[in-house]
Input
Amino acid sequence: MTPEILTLCVAAALLELDTTYAFQLTFSRGIIAAPILSLITGDIMTGIQIGVFTELLFADINPLGGILPPSAVVCSAVSLALHMLGLELYFAFFCGVAGAILFSLAEKIMRKNRFKWLIFWEQQITRHPQMVNRTVVLALATSFLMNFFLISIFIWLCGQFMLWLLPYIPMKAHFACKFAYMAVPWIGLATLVPAFRLKTR
Output
């Protein structure tokens, strides 16, 4: 991995904390996260495009109840990193979408296991109230490290696989993925129109 991609993974892991664990200033939304991450890659226009596409694609999935939507930060980070490695943007974006979905599945597993730790920490804080700050910092650091590990591993594995596969992909697949990529904003808008129509009634 290049230093730029490692920096991208660190920034993405920090932005991912904004989803639920800390801050919650909407930095983790695709429309904001992708342009921020693109400052590292130096391709801001691509970051804005990925941010808009990610936002439209995931706009209809709300984190209600047990639903954990795909991570817009992971989608943005994977897309930008793979594009930086030389992958066409339409391939990189769909790898990013796959990474976002896989990350949400891994996040569900981590949350179930973290619940046991929360009970332990709650008992420790009840006995020693002065441990609150240390416990919060430890929880955030653990979440950051897990985010960084998952994002960087997926980028490395997907990058290696796609760069190996790229010479064998037929031109028809290139055209199909390019067409699908350009259809993403229209699909996103199509899901938003009924939602706006319901709100205006």
